[in-house]
């Protein structure tokens, strides 16, 4: 039996879908995640409800897509910061992880607060875990390179992530220079936690 390959969405379809995502995100930022309904989104988009469901099966599916976009852009910023450094510059790479996180947060604070800080029954635990897993992998690579000694890179990753997250949420008030100073302090604090590996 011949299998029919799924149709690839056209460029126009993807463009309209992205426009709907952008409009929905703006609604969530302006009015809140929970209060914003599908009707609110389609009214702002100027489309029929059937058109909305042509692109997304539900409001929850749209939220998950927006969160996935946020996470993708976060990792892109981190990887760009790290890619500029020499392969063996592990402490500089760790600093770049902090710097990249702060830069992304500052640039997308409204989206971050709308998508992750407002109560909604669509949980964001998996998104947090993706960041922790990413950082755990990075720390483990540093251990294998004999740069750091860590009994539990995953626990260290959790402490770094939640510490960074808490400080950014509480400290950032639009002052990028102050944010950089705070980021540098956080880096030095956590870098000291990573005991240098004993050299042979």
Describe the structure.
With about 200 residues, the chain is mainly alpha-helical. The protein has nine helices and two strands; from the N terminus they run αααααααβααβ. It has a two-stranded antiparallel ribbon with strand order 1-2.
CATH fold category name of the largest domain: Tetracycline Repressor, domain 2
Put simply, the count of helices is 9
So, CATH architecture of the largest domain? Orthogonal Bundle
Average pLDDT, rounded to a whole number, is 89
CATH homologous superfamily label of the largest domain: Tetracycline Repressor, domain 2
- Give the terminus-to-terminus CA distance: 62 Å
**CATH class designation of the largest domain:** Mainly Alpha
Give the strand content.
Answer: under 5%
| Structural domain tally | 2
Main sheet makeup: 2 strands, antiparallel
Helix coverage percent of residues?
Answer: over 70%
Number of strands: 2
| Uncertain ranges | none
H/E topology pattern = HHHHHHHEHHE
Alpha-carbon Rg, integer: 20 Å
What is this entry, summarized?
The chain has 200 residues and is mostly helical. Helix content is 72%, strand content 2%.
Blueprint (SSEs and pairs):
Blueprint: H1 11-31, H2 38-45, H3 49-55, H4 59-83, H5 90-107, H6 109-116, H7 125-144, E1 148-149, H8 153-171, H9 176-193, E2 195-196
Antiparallel strand pairs: 1-2
Helix pairs in contact: 1-2, 1-6, 4-5, 4-6, 5-9, 7-8, 8-9
């Amino acid at each position: 039996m011949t299998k029919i390959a799924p149709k690839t969405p056209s460029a126009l379809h993807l463009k309209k879908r992205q426009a709907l995502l952008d409009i929905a995100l703006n609604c969530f930022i302006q009015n809140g995640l929970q209060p914003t309904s599908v009707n609110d989104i389609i009214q702002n988009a100027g489309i029929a409800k059937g058109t909305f469901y042509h692109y997304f099966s539900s409001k929850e599916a749209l939220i998950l897509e927006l969160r996935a976009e946020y996470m993708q852009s976060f990792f892109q910023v981190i990887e760009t910061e790290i890619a500029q450094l020499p392969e063996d510059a592990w402490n500089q790479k760790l600093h770049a992880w902090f710097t990249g996180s702060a830069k992304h947060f500052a640039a997308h604070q409204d989206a971050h607060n709308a998508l992750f800080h407002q109560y909604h029954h669509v949980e964001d635990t998996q998104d947090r875990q993706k960041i922790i897993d990413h950082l755990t992998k990075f720390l483990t690579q540093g251990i294998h390179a004999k740069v750091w000694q860590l009994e539990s890179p995953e626990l260290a990753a959790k402490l770094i992530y939640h510490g960074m997250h808490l400080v950014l949420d509480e400290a950032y008030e639009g002052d990028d220079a102050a944010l950089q100073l705070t980021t540098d302090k956080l880096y030095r604090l956590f870098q000291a936690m990573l005991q240098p590996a004993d050299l042979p």
